[in-house]
């Protein structure tokens, strides 16, 4: 077996293991993939100050995210249908267990194969639950009530994909609503016989959180219903409506503009995630890391700022923290790991990322994540005013 040294190795392993259409579902971006590429290239362009002869004994990567202890400043991000990356359909359960074992939060999607109750039973730990604002507000209320009863500690509302972007590969592969299955699908699955046979042996796929909400319960019908339910009239009043009904932490995911970040503060959010949805929505938008500093300045410590989109390493997390983020959400990084090696893959990814973060801290002369600031960036920033507020409240 090839030695796994980073997330890119897991990506290549997933590409070898998964059917082509399944891999492209997690690997590609919208339209020309300009934003997808920017997410990673802009991270690479950030330079760090190498420091020496600084005591970096007893380093710690520990922090808290939305009041929850985290062994590193990262959480597993919610991704719809991620359970299907494992042929037995248990991908979300495997990711949740790996996150729990590693000591970081796990966020599940409303569009997951497993239900929130199954995640609770598998881990016994608090989880984050991601929801879309559906046209049927009664269905949203039902989901919120279930999440509260199941022990969800943070509700994540995604706001950047009410009108979904198009991934050309999904259309070509038949991964549209409703799904289309053609000869090319059968051929690619035949080229991955072990994976395909395991998938055929599992129970029929479904969306565990939507069971009972839609008139029909098979996967195609649920996907079609959920697509029709995306509410394009969504606005900040709806976030205030959700805030009134959710007594715990509320995270608004999909913020990429300073004005929207300020609106999230006004709506009562506890946190935002600076995100372009991994480059799958508005192609041509800026990368998350490029948008981050201005947004951090705009919210001025009034809520926690997380970042997702383009995070592939511990050094990426370090760079996000240096630009003012509290932590990061791991989207594709954990999807590649699931596709490559299941639960062990996610555990491996978290270990690699944690190690990269720790080494980067040592090389830049910091011992705790709270010490990571713009001072670690090259070229060094201009001196900050003495009364400047912390951006990582």
Tags for this entry?
15 helices; single chain; TIM Barrel; 393 residues; globular; eight-stranded parallel beta sheet; alpha/beta; 12 strands; 44% helix; two-stranded antiparallel ribbon
Describe, in plain words, how this protein is organized in 3D.
This protein has one domain: Aldolase class I (TIM Barrel, Alpha-Beta Barrel). Helix 1 packs antiparallel against helix 15, helix 4 crosses helix 5 and helix 12 crosses helix 13. The chain has 15 helices and 12 strands. Helices cover 44% and strands 12% of the residues. The strands form 3 sheets. The chain has an 8-stranded parallel beta sheet with strand order 4-11-10-9-8-7-6-5. The longest helix has 33 residues. The model has no long low-confidence stretch (mean pLDDT 92). The protein is of the alpha/beta class and 393 residues long.
Count every helix, treating DSSP H or I runs of 4 or more residues as helices.
15
SSE pattern? HHHEEEEHEHEHEHHHHHEHEHEHEHE
Under CATH, the homologous superfamily reads: Aldolase class I
Estimated structural class: alpha/beta
Describe the biggest sheet? 8 strands, parallel
What integer is the average pLDDT? 92
Low-confidence stretches: none
CATH class: Alpha Beta
SSE layout:
Layout: H1 7-17, H2 20-27, H3 34-45, E1 47-48, E2 63-65, E3 68-70, E4 74-76, H4 91-102, E5 107-109, H5 116-123, E6 127-131, H6 137-150, E7 152-158, H7 168-173, H8 183-190, H9 193-201, H10 219-229, H11 236-245, E8 249-255, H12 258-266, E9 271-274, H13 288-299, E10 304-307, H14 314-322, E11 327-330, H15 332-364, E12 377-378
Parallel strand pairs: 4-11, 5-6, 6-7, 7-8, 8-9, 9-10, 10-11
Antiparallel strand pairs: 1-12, 2-3
Helix pairs in contact: 1-15, 4-5, 4-15, 12-13, 14-15
